[in-house]
Amino acid sequence: MNETQFFDRIRRGLPIDMASGTLPFCGAMSETALRVLMELNHTYHTMDERQQLMEQLMGKALPKTLRVMPPFHTDCGRNTTFGEDVFINAGCAFQDQGGITIGSRVLIGHHVVLATLNHDFCPQERATLHSAPIVIGDDVWIGSNATVVAGVTIGSGSIIAAGAVVTRDVPENTIVGGVPARVIRALTPEELEGRALQAAV
């Protein structure tokens, strides 16, 4: 199996399991990612050097405006795409086998988890994994220690409060918070136009 075959199965919604050979391949990708992450997270690097290591981790060129503060964690790294001017603070973990799409001008706080995999509910099949993509629109702010689970889309302009667990789609220009996350309110026209005083979420 190769990456193209693996991600083709993911796109078709097929499980990651032993029978298909995808589970061992998934483990091998994690080991490859770990080698790069050990270098990224345990030695000081300039921003340019971090950019090079992130590109090595993800196997492609990344926007030059991407900023990642180590430590950064992923057990794959090969299925994330970034827009321009994305900032990822320290301690984040991306489980991206199912696909993570991050728009432009997105701010991701400390220790945010983006998880695109679920284990099977059946105890005898619990090692089998099921994936669904996470999509984050432009101008989203995700507060520290938030978790976004598989299959969630976050609309552009929205704010995810610190510590939230996001289990369902978030409309555009909306503040959500809590466990599970629920809508707190919509952003006001004044806030969207930058004319409102800052207030705690």
Model description:
The chain is α/β, with parallel strands linked by helices and 201 residues long. Helix content is 23%, strand content 25%. The chain contains four helices and 18 strands. The strands form four sheets. A seven-stranded mixed β-sheet has the order 1-4-7-12-15-17-18.
Summarize the structure.
The chain is an alpha/beta fold. The chain has four helices and 18 strands.
List keywords for this structure.
5-stranded parallel beta sheet; alpha/beta; 201 residues; 4 helices; 7-stranded mixed beta sheet
Task: Give the secondary structure arrangement, pairings included.
Elements (H helix, E strand, L loop, with lengths): L2 H9 L10 H21 L4 H12 L8 E2 L3 E3 L5 E3 L4 E2 L3 E4 L4 E3 L4 E2 L4 E3 L1 E3 L9 E3 L2 E3 L4 E2 L4 E2 L4 E2 L4 E2 L4 E2 L7 E4 L4 E5 L2 H4 L9
Parallel strand pairs: 1-4, 2-5, 3-6, 4-7, 5-8, 6-11, 7-12, 8-13, 11-14, 12-15, 13-16, 15-17
Antiparallel strand pairs: 9-10, 17-18
Helix pairs in contact: 2-3
